[in-house]
């Protein structure tokens, strides 16, 4: 594991640790609330949110694998057209 060397890297680490601490605090406070009841509509909304999130995640992963297999992830390459005999645009400029 490498140790961050510049101030920007340390700042990112500190911000991420603060976010982790804040998340832990919110989870702790949420668990401390006690006996709160969730209505049936809350369970339905939670289930639909989980299902929708899974569908989006699976769909994006399927698109990622599809594009990788079909070669869409390859870097762009310039395809040069073969030169043909006469180019009408070049003859028009020669006559002037």
List keywords for this structure.
single chain, 96 residues, mainly alpha, 3 helices, 67% helix, 0% strand
Can you walk me through this structure?
With 96 residues, the chain is mostly helical. It has a domain at 9-70. The chain has three helices and no strands. The protein has helices at residues 7-32, 40-70, 88-94. It is flat, with a radius of gyration of 29 Å. The model has no long low-confidence stretch (mean pLDDT 86).
Brief sketch in words of this structure:
With 96 residues, the chain is mainly alpha-helical.
Q: Count of helices?
A: 3
Structural class: mainly alpha
What is the rounded distance between the termini?
70 Å
**Beta-strand proportion:** under 5%
How can the largest sheet be summarized?
A: none
Shape: flat
Oligomer: single chain
Mean pLDDT: 86
Based on DSSP secondary structure assignment, what is the total number of beta strands? 0
Could you estimate the helical fraction of the residues in percent? 55-70%
Order of helices and strands: HHH
What is the topology?
Elements: H1 7-32, H2 40-70, H3 88-94
């Amino acid at each position: 594991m490498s140790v961050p060397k510049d101030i920007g890297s340390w700042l990112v680490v500190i911000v991420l640790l603060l976010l982790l601490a804040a998340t832990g605090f919110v989870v702790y406070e949420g668990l401390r609330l006690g006996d709160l009841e969730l209505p049936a509509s809350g369970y339905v909304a939670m289930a639909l949110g989980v299902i929708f999130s899974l569908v989006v995640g699976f769909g994006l992963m399927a698109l990622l694998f599809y594009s990788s297999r079909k070669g869409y992830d390859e870097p762009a390459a310039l395809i040069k057209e073969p030169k043909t005999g006469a180019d009408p645009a070049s003859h028009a400029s020669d006559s002037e």
